[in-house]
Amino acid sequence: MELDAKSVGAIFAWLAIALFICSFFYFGIKKKKYTELIELYKANGFSFPGLYAFFSLTGFFGCFPMALYFKRLLAGNSVRMDDGGNIPLAAYRFIKSQPTALTGWVHKLYYLWLSSMLFFVLAAICAALVSFSPD
Asked: What is the tens place of the pLDDT at every residue in 65-121?
């Protein structure tokens, strides 16, 4: 059995769809913790910069950027505010002080979404190769 770009693209597309559906259900399972973490973050006087404030209100479709935001805080990576300054160090300490039971979903959801998008891009590349091939 020989795999051509069309077959590989179809496999990538199905993987992307499956991972997207998995991330949807995983978010549904973890939505309470997602909402709780956002509410705790705000209740402790922290605000989200720019678009993250919007994403925090959009549920499933904003969960990838929010997972990225919290992942960066958990890792201690720099996150910029709208005015060009950095997030206060207290926000990093606050997120790191939360129990893993509350923040454990962050990495899993982030990587589910990321891998889904990666397979969508790979499927699109395969589709482009098929459409531009001389056959």
From this structure: 999 999 999 999 988 777 777 888 999 999 999 999 999 999 999 999 999 999 999
Between CA 128 and CA 135 the distance in angstroms is 13
Closest among 82, 48, 111 to 56, alpha carbons compared: 48
C-alpha to C-alpha distance for 67 and 108, rounded to whole angstroms: 9
pTM, two decimals, is: 0.86
Helix (H) or strand (E) holding 124: helix 105-132
What DSSP line would sit under 15-56, residue for residue?
A: HHHHHHHHHHHHHHHHHHHHHHHHHHHHHTT----HHHHHHT
DSSP state for residue 58 in the 8-state scheme? S
Q: Please give the Cα distance from 53 to 34 (Å, whole number).
A: 14
Question: What are φ and ψ of residue 67, in 5° steps?
Answer: -65, -40
Cα distance between residue 98 and residue 23, in whole Å: 23
pLDDT at 9 over 70: yes
> Taking the CB of residue 37, how many other CB atoms lie within 10 A of it?
20
